[in-house]
Amino acid sequence: MSAHEAYASNNEKYASTFDKGGLPLPPSKQVAVVTCMDARIDPAAQLGINLGEAHVIRNAGGSAKEALRSIVISQRLLQTREVILFHHTDCGMLTFSTNDLRTIVKNASEGDASVAEAVDQIDFLEFGDLEESVKSDVKFLKENNLVLPGTKITGWVHDVKTGKIRQIA
Amino acid sequence: MSAHEAYASNNEKYASTFDKGGLPLPPSKQVAVVTCMDARIDPAAQLGINLGEAHVIRNAGGSAKEALRSIVISQRLLQTREVILFHHTDCGMLTFSTNDLRTIVKNASEGDASVAEAVDQIDFLEFGDLEESVKSDVKFLKENNLVLPGTKITGWVHDVKTGKIRQIA
């Protein structure tokens, strides 16, 4: 069974008792959470986020740089005024370099020049030190002129072994 | 109370009974879910995704284009072979244009030229038709030479009023 078949079946059960259809578009807690796509991260459960409270932005690593487009939309159109950024232990982003991954993709393409050209345009935004990556992303947001002045911005590490979060910045 | 204070408190409770610290890095269902950052979306609950099963990529709109970096990492380094893409009803991305948002940001900056220059570099990736946006993003992934051949790719609309999902592509 493909995952989409299993998830569609699960969704039927979910929808059969769903009773939160009246929530407004703007997040009620005026907050955007940025975190990794990692399969061991479940922000709603791990942070106790209720439906309707928070924007949740997720990408490989929990990159603030890639999240910027979404944060501008979140702040300017939907009134969020806080950003909580998480990276996590045992993150895949600590295990490779952009050059490594470009080589993997090129080697798999059997010499296709269009693949090489496309992958050479992507910065995969890996990082070498977990806590430094959190500090650096918080600094990026605090100094970015598209992020609203006065935004509360904090940076955290989520430990996938314990489920605990710890503030870094 | 800031949202991060409430969420840190919730996390203490979560971690106190956490017993899934041994999950591996690669997603067990070999799938990446792409969806919107919207506060009314909770993929784990709405699709019944168990911890460790799936990468979850979220951004404003559920843009496949912005998700590409994460999808390449997901497939090439962490062995996912399926992408399930969701957009949703009442999405903020249906309500503005990139030019509108650039104007809002510029007007709020009181003539700061560096703000104007920065915001003019961002394509906010809005869309005018919900179902078309799903089809277009699925097409983008199916035709992209960085996405592995043979990847199962499906596109869905999530209805925030009913909690139901519906396949579009």
UniProtKB/TrEMBL annotation, chains A, B:
GO terms for molecular function: carbonate dehydratase activity; zinc ion binding. Zn(2+) binds at residues 36, 38, 88, 91. This is Carbonic anhydrase. Its EC number is 4.2.1.1. Belongs to the beta-class carbonic anhydrase family. It holds the Pfam family Pro_CA. Gene3D superfamilies: Carbonic anhydrase. Signal peptide: none annotated. It comes from the Eukaryota. Binds 1 zinc ion per subunit. Reversible hydration of carbon dioxide. Its cofactor is Zn(2+). SUPFAM superfamilies: beta-carbonic anhydrase, cab. Keywords: Lyase, Metal-binding, Zinc. It comes from Crucibulum laeve. It catalyses: hydrogencarbonate + H(+) = CO2 + H2O.
